[in-house]
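Issue: ligand-bound run for iron/sulfur cluster - logging full I/O for the record.

Environment: standard queue, default settings, no custom constraints.

Inputs:
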Amino acid sequence: VATPRLRHPGPFEPYDERDTVFARVALEPGTAHYRDYYRRRPELERGDGVLRNLRGLATPGTMRYRPGEAALVDGIFATSELVARALDASPAFSGAEGTGAARHDLADGDPAALTRLVRDAAFFLGADDVGIAPLEPGFVYTHRGRRRFGEEVELDHTHAVILVQAMRHEYVLTAPEMTSTCETARVYQGLAAACHALAAALDRLGIAARAHVDSNYVVICPPLAESAGLGEVGRNGVLVHRTHGPGVRLGVVTVGADLVADAPRSWGVAEFCRVCGKCADNCPAGAISRDDPVVVRGALKWPMDPQRCYKYWRTLGTDCGLCLRTCPFAKPDTALHRLVRGVVRATAALDRPMLWADDLLYGRRPRVVAPPRLEVGPPRGGSWRNRPQGGAPSG
Ligand code: B12
Ligand code: SF4
Ligand code: SF4
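Outputs:
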């Protein structure tokens, strides 16, 4: 099935991880990296300075700070950090040849058998969905930014295995509260462990593999997931998964052996986005485009403004997520929603009535929901005892 997204002019131009807002804000004034970077990109220095001086994620003084949940977020990220660091410490995951004693038959002989093994293992390790795509060089960073700043990326792997883990819907609905950031962190941790284990297992078979996990990626995940047929990148800039919608997180294992790739396909998402725009209307930072898609580095897509988004994060002290929460595709996987998704996939003719129905039933703006309890701390200005029952996250 043709993918609307593939009507791009291409070829895709790769991106430099140093240009991501996370890498820039981590630069320390006075260092050689800082000087070199802003010598090349002087127009970014002032704005990045403003961002750097704001408080960070889960930090006291931010708008949605809750001490218990913030501690949980910190604890979970500290655990993921162990994996992210291990990736750089171990030569086995640097993209070199696998370290297994001998190349196993699976490595050379039978791509279909290796693909089955990899897919089964990924599901076994906790993925909710798995896809395989050829590793498009345009989706590999040219240089590293968050770790080993400035190092050229050399990754000669041929395929990417994309692991999808869904965030629990009731937590997505709490965005932009700290509660949803806890869920973000939890899923990252799960993916970090799963991707690390899968890459390590391939390594044991003598197959070169590298895990790409939160804070240590050399690939851009959403377009790879789209190429693997797992969904489509929407106006909100992230993968809208075929079943779980945008409330999913992605981990990737790139592999230096032949695998049987899945085909990209249209799920009706990009067409629906043309008429919808709900994420843009609900983005408090005005970071999401309301216009038609444009060509960026060879891809037809909706550009977003990362500075605006990230500034909002650092003001809230959470990772916001309103563009996940308010998307009409962010619905639990029930029979009714499967039916609606089937209609959207089959025809764009009913997109407007579908959107109208979504607005009517779920609201154009996020509605008040009763948040699930984490019970890890009082809300801002509250105490354990007076924690509101069914309180309202506001957006
Ligand atoms: C840097 C970063 C950010 C930055 C910049 C966002 C951005 N759009 O790039 C900030 C801090 C703003 C951010 C915000 C968010 N992020 Co973020 N972010 C990343 C990170 C670490 C790197 C992305 C990157 O290199 N961007 C720089 C360039 C490439 O950006 P860009 O040109 O705008 O391209 C974006 C898209 O257009 C698309 N893309 C790039 N090339 C192509 C080519 C084609 C053909 C297509 C179709 C798409 C496409 O991918 C890029 C990221 O979405 C990725 C992890 C990863 N390695 O992929 C997570 C990631 C993209 N983020 C994610 C999420 C969920 C979010 C948020 C919703 C926050 C939240 N609560 O979770 C918001 C959404 C913001 C938005 N509307 O895009 C998830 C998306 C999961 C999914 N469903 O696809 C990722 C994949 C993390 C993960 N492992 O799950 N993020
Ligand atoms: S995470 Fe929030 S600020 Fe960022 S793009 Fe989404 S809605 Fe906008
Ligand atoms: S909210 Fe609407 S426009 Fe935005 S990604 Fe979802 S379907 Fe597309």
